[in-house]
Amino acid sequence: MELTQNSDKLIYMRLKEWLEDEILSGSFPENTQIPSVAELSVSFKLNHITVLKSVNMLSDTGILYKKRGIGTFVAEGAAEKIRNERHSEFYQKYIVSMISEAKKLGITADELLEMTERGYHNE
Q: Residue 87 has what DSSP assignment?
């Protein structure tokens, strides 16, 4: 297992995103157990407190739930919740700034749509 090398994000946030990605991909289906904090610590060579912080963040938002003495599990509806959160973040982070820059450059909505479609289909 490997975390994406992204120096502008703290390691616990990268691990949180990795866990979310694994849920979205189906590697950790709903109502199944995820690796323990100890297992994740060893796999990623991280301090267990760092791993625990990531797991707790996902538990606090209802993505994961804990069964005392058994482990941590993916909550029902977790993938949809992650998709909705990321959809909103994507809009705020990329679309709003793209539209703002397009307006500064005098790019019309139609031109922007055409550029977006061209880029989407070329990737």
A: H
